[in-house]
Structure formats: structure tokens, C-alpha cells
Amino acid sequence: MKFLTKSLFIATCIGISLNSYALKGDTDQPINITSGSQSLDMESNTVVFSDNVLITQGSIKINATKVTIIRKEGQREKIEANGAPAKFQQTMDDGKPANGQANQINYDLGDEFLILTGNAELKQLDSSIKANKITYDVKKQQLKAMSGSKSRVKTVLIPTQLQDKKNKK
Prior knowledge:
Elements: H1 2-12, H2 18-21, E1 32-34, E2 37-41, E3 46-57, E4 60-70, E5 78-91, E6 97-108, E7 113-124, E8 127-137, E9 142-146, E10 154-156, H3 159-162
Antiparallel strand pairs: 1-3, 2-3, 3-4, 4-5, 5-6, 6-7, 7-8, 8-9, 8-10
């Protein structure tokens, strides 16, 4: 039972705790953005990238139809990625890949709060969480997965893939 509880907890954090478990050097790497078009509104501090957007930073990779970055005075950026679906991937410190996707991905860098909406999925190896909406508070490391009245949250756990390397001998 203890192992199942630990596995469930680990599974709910699949690929989400990017700041805690992501490759340590990722956020120090240059950010590269390619897109079909880009627009900048200096007055509203908004940049919009559209038409097959690809963002890379270290092991982080984001693919989306459209990415909007907004910076309000005195605050950190808010990022919104849209797609059918928008996708992200990153390599964790343990070398395992983490992937996520949703029709819309919102990340508030100041509050460190992530929201995946519409066909949301988080995956690490073969373990996954699927729901209509997944939220993750990075600071508190709290995840919530919600689905509408006609669907249910689906979680798949592969215990052998979730075990720490320390437990494997």
C-alpha cells in the first residue's frame, strides 16, 4: 500500500515539476524561437508568435500554432500556447523525458502556475494523466486534474518506471 501511495503521488507530478526536476541548466540556456510570423506591441508589452511556432531552451521544446507572451510592468511574463494540440517536452535530471499537451497551455512565470486546458495530458515514459483540465502550482507542488460531466480523469501508472534509481539494484 505504501508503494502504491508513493507511485500515485509521483504519477500525479509526472513531468510537471519542471523547475524542481528539470535539467538544471535548461533555464540558463538561450531561448530560440522560430515561427512563420511575429508581432510586437510595445504599448501592451505583448509578443505574438504564430504559424508553426517552435521554442527551444536546453532540453525544453514547445510546439504550438500560436504563442503569446505578455509582460505587465513589475511582473514576470505570462505565456499562452495554443494548438491542436500545443505540445511541450523536457528531459528531467534523472534522464527521463516528460511530455505534455493540451489545446491551450498557460504558464504564469511570476506565480509559477501552469494550466493545461482541452484534451490535457501529462506523460512520463508510459505513465500518464489525461483530463479536460490540469492545473499545477509549481511552488506548492499541487496538481489537480478535472474533466467535464461526460468524461473522467484517466491515470495510467507503470510502477517499475516510476521507481527511483536508488530502489533499483
